[in-house]
Amino acid sequence: MDVTFASKWVKRKGPLEDKVLTIPENTVGDYLIFQFISNNTNIMQYTVSGETENKIHIDSDGSLFLNDSLDWETRNISAQDENSVTVEGPVNIKITVLDINDNKPIFNQTIYNGVVRQHSRPGRPFMRVFATDKDDPNTPNAKLNYSILTQIPELHQVNLFQIDSETGEISSTPDVYKTVQNRTEFQGKGVRLYRKSGESDVVLRAGTGSVFFFLDPSKHMHYVLFITVKDLEGLSVNSLSDNAKVQIEVKENLWQPPGPVSIKENSTEPHPVFITQVRWNEPGAIYELGEKERYSKFPFMINRDGNIYVTDPLDSEESERYVLVVFAKGKNNENLEQPLEILILVEDINDNPPVCVQDVTTFEVQENEKIGNQIGILQATDMDRKKENSFLKYELLDQEPDQPNARMFMIDPYSANIQISNDNFQKKIVSEYKLKVRVSDMDGEPTGNTNCSVTIKVIDINNKIPVFDKQQYPPLNISEDAAIGTLMCKIRATDADDPGTGSWKIIYKVAEGDPTGMFIVDTDEETNEGYVKINKHLNFEKVSLYHLRIDARNPEPLVFGIDYNSNSSMYLAIGVNNVNEAPEFDSSFYHKVVLENITVGSVILRVHAIDPEGSLVR
């Protein structure tokens, strides 16, 4: 027995009672475990029972020794007198063997082979390495830590792979994608940047924030990782370790969105119709189809093979584009990768004829209108979205009556602007013209066309001015608190031109005496009667009397040589009556912060109010 070691443990002694004892693993030889001491003077010997297998024994002085290595066991110990009669005990003794770090971790393979897909999502494991340690799994001796020693080749000084230190799962790092803002970001790292694909291991994409893809099978298909595993969680210099080699092949990523898909609207093919497909990198994926936005209907489906179909005819007028979202999922319904987005464009066909905005479009022309003057613009629409399908052309087909000329009007074929082509209008002969205009799409080569009706009324020339029935109206008085919209009075001017025409209609306007627009005059379109109303709140203290001049005008211009005069104006005086108004504070809310120890009688704040009439306020 090692005397030094034994002397260390001889201090472990105590009464004969139930006890749990520990010894280090692989301890052999006469190793003193514990010494039991009894106060009973009759005790001559101690005995140990149980499955000792001759690995432990106890001396007559109560010293418990280990003869050989053992697993933990439960033993019974008792004290006996000179007649071998048990006078104390038995007690249960449990011996626990303490594990030591005497086993190194071992990889289950010396060489691993894995596959990573181009543009695979960083951080998503694509393979795993595995090691075991025979030490007690409940101790740090069997707690393993995985790490990457080196990557070959180490292009551009970028680590493309990472390993989970606890699970051994290997994934690509975020550095497989690198976004740069200019060409100098990698200077000093041995990277040459080119704008032309194929001239370097990296490709600079045009535009700000160019993206580099380092995992590209067309550039470098194979990588080798040397990995290590350590016990003691890799935290100690005394950790035991093992190494392995990982060979990684970079393959093309099949999980990529197809380009935009164009589908002609209103297809007559039997549905569903195949339009495109997606593929996951490995067999067994479950495909699901969703919509990026909420559509009124979603006529698409995907089958188990990744084939995508449109299930019903589409209408570009209902939706000219769809964005499909495709998911690839595993057996546990987890996403295998980020979903793909597929753009579906609905191609417009010429399936809508032009439509007249109004059943009958009405314009007016005065007797003295000149050739070239614009009468109006015919309004028509086409529901087709495609420009060539909705570009309209106009053609004048018929004019009734055809007097005094069969071509009194013309229409621009593309702007639909109707103009005068003859200037001999006489209302007494023809008071109204009816035109038939053909509107066609596709620049006059339509699948269908529409005829629009236009009525053009000949109106008397505006050679009469509005005349007021009296130029001076009696003065009025109104309280300053009268509501906006209050009717002050009615005024009237008459016009001798044809009733209902723009030459007859009258517009009243306050021309003088009201610079701030306190009053307004509305017109009855049936009678031309005017209604003088309050437009803003009155204020006696600001203005107590208004002298208004109100003019009457036509919406149509007067003929040359005719001008408005004093007969088209009237005068009205309006007095504002004062109302005793309540005083007003200069603020509706006051706020002041004071200290809690403010002196009694101190002024906290001052408020201020005024009376609109100037009276004293208290």
TrEMBL record:
Main location: membrane
UniProt keyword Ubl conjugation present: no
InterPro entries, sorted: Cadherin, Cadherin-like_dom, Cadherin-like_sf, Cadherin_CS
Domain (Cadherin): residue spans on this chain: 32-107, 108-356, 357-468, 470-585
GO cellular component: adherens junction; catenin complex
Keywords recorded for this protein, A-Z: Calcium, Cell adhesion, Cell membrane, Glycoprotein, Membrane, Repeat
Compartment(s) of residence: Cell membrane
Pfam family, one: Cadherin
PROSITE patterns: CADHERIN_1, CADHERIN_2
Gene Ontology MF, one: beta-catenin binding
GO biological process: adherens junction organization; calcium-dependent cell-cell adhesion via plasma membrane cell adhesion molecules; cell migration; cell morphogenesis; cell-cell adhesion mediated by cadherin; cell-cell junction assembly; convergent extension involved in gastrulation; homophilic cell adhesion via plasma membrane adhesion molecules
PANTHER family: CADHERIN-17 (PTHR24027:SF419), CADHERIN-23 (PTHR24027)
UniProt name for this protein: Cadherin 17, LI cadherin (liver-intestine)
Annotated source species: Erpetoichthys calabaricus (Rope fish)
Lineage, top ranks: Eukaryota, Metazoa, Chordata, Craniata, Vertebrata
